């Protein structure tokens, strides 16, 4: 496939965070872009406002006639999350189109560019967005394909005038193996996606394969302690090639000092909270230094970094209530998020609302979820969000509740959770999960503010 030939693009599953980024990219290039998704969301609404038509009926009759005949100027992209029996997906297959996965298209776009690929079972979205912001804010510039909506830029795709592209490298479905980065960052390799990989060892093999695909002369940057050979290590409050030390909170903001043995940057103010985000910042700083961004420009950019939607995002912050929303959906992410909240607000009672994501993940990590959620003071747990999966007998939210030591816990529906918050008005509230729990954010905000 030659990108220069593409005039029309149809995306099956256009509403996903990665797919919508590609839709915006090709629309920006002047292509005719449209697509299908099963549900309407704020993101699909934004695409429609930007002039990208989206349908929500899995009916081939709605596909424009320009997309009925295969040719080299028409590109069909699909996400692996689309069911194999999708009518629209099978229309394109039966019509003789060559279908491309989102990851394959990203691989083609980044081919021939200086690519910074950020991988990891968690931390990759914030780290890649941080790197992109440093490059933009410093004037170095870049294009970027991000796995979340940047709060600074209100989008998940950035367009640059140079040859540098920052790509979030997703391990799901081994997607990141289409990339051949110049700088590869690996933030974490915790067991996840075991429905794809089977076990942690196969997941680790996939990350090692990703690291082996770095272009000749390229660099690997990875968190210290990961089972990887070679490369530069980074950490917060631990020995590593690049590290953060003297981490402190001043007036609700995180500050730290950076050193890699050659460059030292003291007193960096980080625009977003969390010790785990200090760690992400160390990786971002190291990659920016490799791209010849000055220490002063890096320090300034990190101070103005506003984060990513649904990554430790403040929804309400006043003298009466603090409400934070986060995408955490893996036990290690939950622990990092909850510990950061408690470090920021010691002594405050923490109420969390958690929506488990996927039956397989709940089954595989029930003990880990219980351990992480035992760190809160009060828990409301919702039913499992199934995403692409069918139910598994005996797997439900009660699996987690039954393993927890915490007494103050209960299972409830979404509307019930809003009513509880409305009645009890918790002073410190956290919503966590990767499903559709984000639909509760505005109702919960109103529930807290409704005096």
TrEMBL record:
Q: What keywords does the record list, in alphabetical order?
A: ATP-binding, Cell cycle, Cell division, Cell shape, Cell wall biogenesis/degradation, Cytoplasm, Ligase, Nucleotide-binding, Peptidoglycan synthesis
Top EC group: ligase
SUPFAM superfamilies attached to this UniProt entry: MurCD N-terminal domain, MurD-like peptide ligases, catalytic domain, MurD-like peptide ligases, peptide-binding domain
InterPro entries this protein is in? Answer: Mur-like_cat_sf, Mur_ligase_C, Mur_ligase_C_dom_sf, Mur_ligase_cen, Mur_ligase_N, MurCDEF_pg_biosynth, UDP-N-AcMur_Ala_ligase_MurC
This enzyme catalyses: UDP-N-acetyl-alpha-D-muramate + L-alanine + ATP = UDP-N-acetyl-alpha-D-muramoyl-L-alanine + ADP + phosphate + H(+)
Compartments it resides in: Cytoplasm
Per the record, the gene is murC
Record-linked Pfam families: Mur_ligase (PF01225), Mur_ligase_C (PF02875), Mur_ligase_M (PF08245)
Tell me the protein's name: UDP-N-acetylmuramate--L-alanine ligase
What is the role of the protein in this entry? Cell wall formation.
Q: Quote the EC number.
A: 6.3.2.8
Pathway note: Cell wall biogenesis; peptidoglycan biosynthesis
For this chain's UniProt record, which GO biological process terms are given? Answer: cell division; cell wall organization; peptidoglycan biosynthetic process; regulation of cell shape
Name the lineage. Answer: Bacteria, Pseudomonadati, Bacteroidota, Sphingobacteriia, Sphingobacteriales
Q: Which residues cross the membrane?
A: none
The UniProt GO MF terms for this protein read: ATP binding; UDP-N-acetylmuramate-L-alanine ligase activity
Its GO CC terms are: cytoplasm
Task: Please give the organism.
Answer: Mucilaginibacter gotjawali
Q: Which Gene3D superfamilies match?
A: Mur ligase, C-terminal domain, Mur-like, catalytic domain, NAD(P)-binding Rossmann-like Domain
What domain of life is recorded for the organism?
Bacteria
**What is stated as this protein's family in its record?**
Belongs to the MurCDEF family.
